């Protein structure tokens, strides 16, 4: 058995936002693959798969190729800017350890640069954070940023008041958490607003540049913009030679195989499969169940037994808003909110973490943050940037940044549908 991955670690993505907001360190939620799999006699190859040759039964790597008898494709998803890829350099998304560390750097640097900035307008821009996308990732990022500014950093600066930072959450649909019942989504909104987050739902982002975010015709000056509005399946799916849906996912059989192929399984964010009338969500518990099921179906094939269809056991979904506050559906049926939902969220995430060391480290950091109102992973890496200056207007003359309410330029590419 061989595992090919371009990273040498397993990542627990549901807690990635806590690395981005300085609660946890990368090693708390990531474990080396060789350490996890070595005792199972699995060969681990550090390489990037670029495509699959179905006919030749080979995985093509960036620097070689690998033959297979049975193949499980679980390459996940990447950020989708809905045709506006130029926005990526201004509004990073959150999918990897590298993404999380860079976002943490940008967030912490914003406060450090604001402490030195003499210009009040530029200081306001530095202390304005815009999150695009009101799904679980956007909600959790917004709540965590609000807690950083209102609690963790509030006594650490002399020239600025971090509690005055603006956290703005933009969502294209008319309520946050579009896949949740509306009553829970409204509770999430109320909890965020109590933390001081400005929630703007039912509005569309038309442009993102270095100066800020355009929401319709309104410009929000901001130096830190974060993208949580959409994902698309890994580009590897295009090499599988089957039809893809709008998000680039593969419509798989009930057994999780490619249509017409029993030797190639597709799981996780790359797979489109329904439970009843609704697609199975691209969440970690679903991917874990699919991985186990695909492996069992391969074993059944080797034993000459028929494969079994996949049945998703939905144990529920939760989104944490802040200290002692969360919303969720237990067992996909029972709505929960407030402190009880927060405790359920804590228990579920610790349960699914891999390894005693990770569980202990996460619990210790959570306890410290809860008791001390502090963040233990506030490390800024890389060179210290120069203080920002107002960008030049067209024609070369310097001018101040555009302000809220100024007419937005029209983006050439299509605007994100709904989510932003």
Can you characterise this structure?
This protein is α/β, with parallel strands linked by helices and 420 residues long. It has a domain at 2-79 and 231-302: FAD/NAD(P)-binding domain (3-Layer(bba) Sandwich), CATH 3.50.50.60. The protein is built from 10 helices and 25 strands. Strand 6 and strand 7 form a beta hairpin. The longest helix is centred in the N-terminal third of the chain and has 20 residues, at 97-116. Residues 392-403 and 405-420 have low confidence and may be disordered.
What is the overall pLDDT average?
89
The multimeric state of the shown protein is single chain
Strand order of the largest sheet: 12-11-10-16
What would you give as the CATH superfamily of the domain at 2-79 and 231-302? Answer: FAD/NAD(P)-binding domain
Termini separation: 42 Å
GO molecular function, one term: NADH dehydrogenase (quinone) (non-electrogenic) activity
EC number: 1.6.5.9
Keywords: FAD, Flavoprotein, Membrane, NAD, Oxidoreductase, Transmembrane, Transmembrane helix
Domain FAD/NAD(P)-binding: 2-291
Short description:
With 420 residues, the protein is an alpha/beta fold. 29% of the residues lie in helices and 23% in strands. It has a domain at 2-79 and 231-302: 3-Layer(bba) Sandwich (FAD/NAD(P)-binding domain), CATH 3.50.50.
């Amino acid at each position: 058995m061989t595992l090919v991955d371009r990273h040498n670690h397993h990542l627990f993505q549901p807690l990635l936002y806590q690395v981005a907001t300085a609660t946890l360190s990368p090693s708390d939620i990531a474990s080396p693959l060789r350490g996890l799999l070595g005792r199972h006699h699995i060969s681990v190859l550090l390489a990037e798969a670029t495509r699959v040759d179905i006919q030749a039964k080979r995985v093509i790597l960036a620097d070689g190729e690998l033959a297979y008898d049975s193949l499980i494709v679980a390459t996940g998803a990447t950020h989708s800017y809905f045709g506006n890829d130029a926005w990526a350099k201004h509004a990073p998304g959150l999918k990897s350890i590298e993404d999380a560390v860079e976002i943490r750097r940008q967030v912490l640097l914003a406060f450090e640069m604001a402490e030195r900035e003499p210009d009040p307008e530029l200081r306001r821009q530095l202390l304005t954070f815009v999150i695009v996308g009101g799904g679980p990732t956007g909600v959790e990022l917004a709540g965590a940023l609000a807690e950083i500014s209102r609690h963790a950093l509030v006594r650490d600066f002399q020239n600025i008041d971090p509690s005055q930072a603006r956290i703005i959450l933009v969502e294209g649909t008319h309520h946050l958490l579009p896949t949740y019942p509306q009553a829970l989504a409204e509770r999430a909104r109320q909890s965020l607003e109590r933390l001081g987050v400005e929630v703007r739902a039912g509005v569309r982002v038309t442009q993102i540049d270095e100066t800020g975010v355009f929401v319709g015709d309104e410009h929000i000056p901001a130096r830190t913009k974060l993208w949580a509005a959409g994902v698309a399946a890994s580009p590897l799916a295009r090499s599988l030679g089957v039809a893809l849906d709008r998000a680039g996912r593969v419509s798989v059989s009930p057994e999780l195989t490619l249509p017409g192929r029993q030797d190639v399984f597709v799981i996780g964010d790359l797979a489109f499969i329904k439970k009843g009338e609704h697609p199975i969500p691209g969440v970690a518990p679903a991917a874990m169940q699919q991985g186990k099921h695909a492996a069992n179906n391969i074993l059944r094939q080797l034993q000459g037994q028929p494969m079994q269809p996949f049945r998703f056991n939905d144990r529920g979904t939760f989104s944490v808003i802040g200290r002692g506050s969360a919303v969720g559906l237990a067992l996909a049926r029972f709505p929960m909110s407030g402190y009880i939902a927060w405790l359920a969220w804590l228990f579920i995430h610790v349960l699914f973490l891999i390894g005693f060391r990770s569980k202990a480290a996460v619990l210790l950091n959570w306890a410290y943050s809860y008791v001390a109102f502090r963040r233990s992973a506030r490390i800024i890496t890389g060179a210290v940037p120069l203080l920002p200056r107002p960008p030049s207007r067209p024609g070369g003359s310097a001018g101040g940044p555009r302000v809220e309410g100024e007419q937005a330029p029209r983006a050439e590419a299509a605007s994100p549908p709904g989510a932003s």
